[in-house]
């Protein structure tokens, strides 16, 4: 039975991985207290030597996009230095490393969905730190899967979906940016696709497995404003008691909501490579939002602050 180490299980994706990877092997889930990727590199190596995983799944990340602008060292420690350590250990022990990255590695311009072959040009400390982590993994030559995601949400943890639900019950007016385009990806989708890829790896063996970097996002696209409107319309249809009418949400440009870190205007991700390599069938972003709403109890609708919700990868 394969030994599977999962980092960051307190995060959105880590929480879902506990569910999706159950049955694929012997799981070794770790919190930050048990495996601190921001801490002493020797401590990371010691944990790896103690667990001796065959597969390392690393959703842990520094995702405080705005705080990273003033705390670059911390962002790079978690997003770049720690993945490098994991990758070097994986290379030395013939282990597989599954790592999650982000659309922030691109410059965020244009209107075409980003492919894996497009040049990277991150515009924030967060994006640069995530790209550095990717590069360290590739340079290690370890067996790896790097899955780039965007606009992550889920029923666990603070995120845009839960914040909008809360504000929809508390306010009668709300402004949301309408010039940033992407596709909301649920943590459960990311975890389920990860399980599908790992099952392929375990069934087929290491020799012929299509390692590499892949984009993972649901079908379709929307703006944050369109996302919020759709979410509250569906919530109202499911009986949520709202004080905010969905059509009353005002769309505003990013310039009206300045933040320390630059957000991508274009977060579209082309997932053709993933579908062709693994035969993955991806749902629409609307279906993922509907599923999350159906799973979220009315008593558990508290979310994070609006500023925190603008980057909710939960990796």
Automatic annotation (TrEMBL):
Record's GO cellular component terms: cytosol
Annotated RmlD-like substrate binding domain residues: 3-295
Cofactor comment: Binds 1 Mg(2+) ion per monomer.
GO molecular function, one term: dTDP-4-dehydrorhamnose reductase activity
Catalyzed reaction equations: dTDP-beta-L-rhamnose + NADP(+) = dTDP-4-dehydro-beta-L-rhamnose + NADPH + H(+)
EC number assigned by the record: 1.1.1.133
Signal peptide: none
Membrane-spanning segments: none
One GO term of the biological process aspect: dTDP-rhamnose biosynthetic process
Top-level taxonomic group: Bacteria
Cofactor annotation: Mg(2+)
Pathway(s) the chain acts in: Carbohydrate biosynthesis; dTDP-L-rhamnose biosynthesis
Annotated segments matching region Disordered: 296-315
Keywords assigned: NADP, Oxidoreductase
Keyword Coiled coil found: no
Keyword Ubl conjugation applies: no
Family membership: Belongs to the dTDP-4-dehydrorhamnose reductase family.
Summary of the function given for this chain in its UniProt record: Catalyzes the reduction of dTDP-6-deoxy-L-lyxo-4-hexulose to yield dTDP-L-rhamnose.
Descriptive protein name: dTDP-4-dehydrorhamnose reductase
Species for this entry: Chromobacterium alticapitis
């Amino acid at each position: 039975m394969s030994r599977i180490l999962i980092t960051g299980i307190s995060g959105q994706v880590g929480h879902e991985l506990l569910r999706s990877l159950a049955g694929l092997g012997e799981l070794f889930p770790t919190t930050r207290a048990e495996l601190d990727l921001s801490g002493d590199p020797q401590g990371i190596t010691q944990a790896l030597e103690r667990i001796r995983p065959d597969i390392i799944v690393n959703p842990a990340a520094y995702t405080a996009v705005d705080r990273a602008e003033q705390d670059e060292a911390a962002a790079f420690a978690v997003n770049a230095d720690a993945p490098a350590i994991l990758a070097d250990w994986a290379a030395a022990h013939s282990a597989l490393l599954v790592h999650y990255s982000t659309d922030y590695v691109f410059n965020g311009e244009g209107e075409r969905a980003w492919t894996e072959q497009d040049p990277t040009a991150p515009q924030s400390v967060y994006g640069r730190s995530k790209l550095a982590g990717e590069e360290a993994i590739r340079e290690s030559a370890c067996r790896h899967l790097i899955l780039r995601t965007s606009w992550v949400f889920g029923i666990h943890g603070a995120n845009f979906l839960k914040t909008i639900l809360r504000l929809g019950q508390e306010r009668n007016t709300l402004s949301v940016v309408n010039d940033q385009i992407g596709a909301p990806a649920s943590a459960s989708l990311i975890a389920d696709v990860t399980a599908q890829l790992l099952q392929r790896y375990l069934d087929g063996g290491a020799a012929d497995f299509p390692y590499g970097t892949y984009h993972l996002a649901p079908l379709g696209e929307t703006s944050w404003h369109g996302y919020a409107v759709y979410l509250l319309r569906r919530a109202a249809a499911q009986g949520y008691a709202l004080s905010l009418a969905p059509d009353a949400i005002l769309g505003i440009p990013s310039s009206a909501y300045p933040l320390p870190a630059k957000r991508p205007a274009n977060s579209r991700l082309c997932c053709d490579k993933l579908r062709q390599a693994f035969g993955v069938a991806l749902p629409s972003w609307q279906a993922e939002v509907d599923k999350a709403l159906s799973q979220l109890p009315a008593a558990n609708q508290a979310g994070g602050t609006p500023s925190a919700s603008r980057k909710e990868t939960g990796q």
